[in-house]
Amino acid sequence: MSTKIAPSLLAADFGNLQRDVEMVNQSDADWHHIDVMDGVFVPNISYGMPVVKAIAKHATKPLDVHLMIVDPDRYIKTFAELGADVLSVHYEACTHLHRTLQAIKAEGMKAGVALNPHTSVSLLEDTIQDIDVVCLMSVNPGFGGQSFIENTYEKVRQLKAIIQRKGASTLIEIDGGVTSLNAKSLTDAGADVLVAGSFVFKSANPTQTIKDLKEIAG
Ligand code: DX5
Ligand code: ZN
Question: Is this prediction's pTM over 0.90?
Fold first, then answer.
């Protein structure tokens, strides 16, 4: 299976959001990555439901929604109604992660868990079979355009080992600072999905950049 590429619309031109969503539709990308930030869990506020609704209206590929919000259980149903296909909550924001995962699946979505750079993958040992996607943050969440944290490679290898040992089919997604320079090393380590914001949208030819990234990642 080839590596999935998920352009992060956080780096899109919000004045031309429809154009940028359509660019992703027509590209070799696999998912639309949608970052929702509440200004509490992370220091930044990105966008909320009306913008996600607008994206969903034009998007033709699965919506990969990354919630960087406290107490995400409050909005599981809402994001299902908005058309999310994958809904990722932060491990650090969930008191009852197992319950949250069941609630996401009960709404017909794939359940994702995002881990901050300081959070050990070993904490997912007991829930991995219930998780469809683990989103390993390779920057501290809250902003696009940050530098990739090198320790991520080791976390990917450790997580892959847990997934294999437990016989799970969880995908490993990497989010933050992904470029053509680290894409191959990440997939070699075991990554299945690469999120890329700035690297795609700040490039001269985003469609070509997505194509190149997918080819490099293999
Ligand atoms: C960061 C977000 C990322 C971000 C990635 O908190 O979760 O998805 O958009 O942006 P780049 O690829 O620019 O690091
Ligand atoms: Zn994200």
Answer: yes
